[in-house]
Amino acid sequence: MGMTITEKIMASQSGRDKVRPGELVWVDVESVMTMDYLGKTCFDKFRSLGKTDVFDKNKVICVSDHLVPPPNQKFATMLNEWREVVKAHDITYFYDLGRQGIAHQIMVEQGHVLPGKVSIGTDSHANTYGAVGAVGNAVGVTDAAVAMATGKAWFRVPSSVKFHITGEWQPYIMAKDLSLHIMGMMHWNGHLIYKTLEFCGPAIDALSVAGRMTLCNMTVDLGAKNGIVAPDVKTQEYLKDIAKGDWDMLASDDDAEYEAVYEIDVSQLGPTVALPDKLDDTLPVEKVTGRKFNKAFVGTCTNGRLEDLAIMADILQDRQIHRDVNMIVVPASQGVYLEALRAGYLETLILAGAAIDTPSCAACAGIHTGVAGDGDIVLSAGNRNMKGRMGSKNAEIYLTSPAVVAASAIYGEITDPRTL
Amino acid sequence: MIKGTCWVADDYVMAYNIIVQEYWTSPIDKLENSKWVMAGVHEDFNKENGFKDCGYTFIVAGHNFAGGGKSIEHVIAGLMGAGIQAVFATSFARLQFRNAINYGLPFITSPDIDKKCKTGDTLEYDPESGIIKNLSQDLSFESIPTPPFVSEVAQAGGLMNYVKEKIAKGEAIG
Ligand code: SF4
pLDDT tens digits for chain B (174 residues)? Predict the structure, then answer.
């Protein structure tokens, strides 16, 4: 019996020939990420283990994303303490305000996450790292502290579920639509708890690394342990100038064992929308067209990348955002910001009436820039829409792709981009 | 052997309701986190020490306890601070399952237990055998056994102590 890619990674990184689902292993981690509001606790816990130096100064990655730029004194003070502790430990890669971005974007775009390796982070969407063929996993501060000290983390080897994706991507259909479609099909935090979700097939080969990031990102919201796409030439091309280490081009064996296999044909897939409060309450856009909203938000570790801004600029070129809609666009990192600026996308968006904000998590977790107030109806390209997520409990959040957000913003009501 | 009363929850008790948003950026501290633990799960618990003052020892829950994808350890610290010594559920969300193991709080999977217990029932849990008894209703439940590593971590008083001891002794991990 062969092994899946995730089993192979867990085996090689724990120094074994073979592992089986259910086994507990200690694996070597390629990188440990922590960020502004939990990072100080990680370092404090790390020192309480009796250590002063982290296992590798190049592999503990520190990012300011949830709290920057600080919206109030409490966060400003927290950030000051955070900066001090990072400096005190002489960490090589510190992506602080000015060089910042959402941690998961930074981890991938700066080459800290590599095919065939394991990376962990103290934020739930660390699953994003599977986009380049890594095992990416979210952990608490205790696991991060232990990994900072030892370079290791324990894992229970998950069983794998395969999503074989075929067909041709149609115009304006994005990885986000596939993510939301799977969410509706499998249910939020439902049957996929603990599993590895492996995405493969011609429609995955056709996806950019950015699209694969969107897809892997939301596997945590399905309750899965991780999502993964086996590395290919696109991955190699993406990583060749940025990788901070060596990598292994692993793939699942033909006779690997899967707990379930699902087939999806993207040719049939249309723009998809999740209704407020429950992520798995998803519908094709035509079922909700015409619903009014007053706030539009595109950004986050799910959809704040260059291709997301590109499709928005394409839709909003020479058009105007409806006067009743406030749109905030937040590039996922300074790198994305600069590229979007150079490509002219931001100019197009500004001319259409969008506000561009500093790369950060922004309003995604409701603690920062552009939060939702009472009565707001938000059309968002983010990843979570439970009550109160973006601020007020009396706000509603619809989730969809950047293309749907852009098209809808023109009319102030949910609109199918294919009908423009 | 642990004995005490239980609180019975529904399916889908979410981590972000166990610790509500305004405390996500607070320090992780059993006493502090326990004050408002469960505030978002039920109106009755939405006051200072609302859940803690009920004095439960166990939580019995259905599917996907502590789900919703939040990795914050305040959830486990808060439950422990409120006196919870074990949680029995039909399934757990992975992030908090992991945190529970790391803190040495038994998260025990037991199919169907949620349907057969009532809030206020007295339960008795034997970590050795994994047997959970409902003394109020004279029922007994089996649970899925915990791997040795998990018991070792619990015995050490959590992963931090477990690793600290290894480091102090110069022993390798894994
Ligand atoms: S963008 Fe949102 S989901 Fe992503 S890390 Fe930030 S707060 Fe979490």
Answer: 999 999 999 877 899 999 998 898 889 999 999 999 999 999 999 999 999 999 999 999 998 899 877 888 999 999 999 999 999 999 898 889 999 999 999 999 998 798 999 999 999 999 888 999 999 999 999 998 888 899 899 999 999 999 999 999 999 887
pTM above 0.90, yes or no: yes
User: Do residues A177 and A269 touch, judged by C-beta distance below 8 A?
Assistant: yes
- Per CATH, the homologous superfamily of domain B2-145 is Aconitase, domain 4 (3.20.19.10)
Taking an 8 Å cut-off on Cβ atoms, the answer to whether A140 and B71 are in contact is yes
Q: Is A50 touching B (CB cutoff 8 A)? A: yes
Which residues on B lie below 8 Å from A74 (Cβ)? 25
Q: Which residues of B touch A193 (CB under 8 A)?
A: 64, 67, 91-94
Domains of chain A and CATH, by start = 5-264 (3.30.499.10), 274-419 (3.30.499.10)
Instruction: Indicate the domain borders of chain B.
Output: 2-145
Give A25's contacts in chain B (Cβ within 8 Å): 174
Residues with CB under 6 Å of ligand 1 are: A 102, 123, 125, 300-301, 361, 364-365, 383
Residues near A268 by beta carbon (within 8 Å), at least 6 away in sequence: A167
Say what the ipTM of the complex is. 0.88
Task: Give me A377's structure tokens.
Answer: 């109806």
By CA distance, what is B153's nearest residue in A? A154
For residues B160 and B173, the answer to whether their CB atoms sit within 8 Å is no
